[in-house]
């Protein structure tokens, strides 16, 4: 019976990850369209923050959800590319934040339940993720012969991932502080 419960929880985490990432992706597309440097390269990319958040919280379930969401987004028609290119983009969308998570846990001594994560460690995670994501995406874009692949686009994508992640984390932090203040508590959950 515990296997079914764990499987059910993983399915919920995957479904939640798909929904949140797709939602953030399309909201970001609507809000920051003028800041898109090239197809798939944004100077501010809010979904970068949700990628980190989902993999930090859900680990592999979050990464699977991100990959599936990326496939859906590209299937619907965001990135008009062949199936191999689309699959590579989906794998990168999932692998980069997952590798960033494992970098933080193993190199910055963060517990897997994130109970001891500090702002400095979170910033380290954002930088590691942004570097991995931008690097892998640009390498893939160049390999596949896409116009979005170049050093200039790497810089734009890196900045966009860092800015989007910091804005996302700041919004979450502000929201938690606001809820704690309204409830007159020191902790969100008591």
Write structural notes for this entry.
α2 runs antiparallel to α3 (60-76). The protein has a two-stranded antiparallel sheet. A hairpin with a 2-residue loop joins β1 (36-38) and β2 (41-42). It is mainly α and 190 residues long. 75% of the residues lie in helices and 3% in strands. The model has no long low-confidence stretch (mean pLDDT 86).
Task: Give a quick precis of the structure.
The chain is an all-alpha fold.
Order of helices and strands: HEEHHHHH
Helix content: over 70%
Spatial strand arrangement across the major sheet: 1-2
Shape: globular
The DSSP helix count reads 6
Structural class: mainly alpha
Parts with pLDDT < 50 across at least 5 consecutive residues? none
Instruction: Give the integer mean of the pLDDT values.
Output: 86
Instruction: Give the radius of gyration.
Output: 17 Å
- How big a fraction of the residues is strand? under 5%
**What profile does the largest beta sheet have?**
2 strands, antiparallel
How many DSSP E strands?
2
End-to-end Cα distance: 30 Å
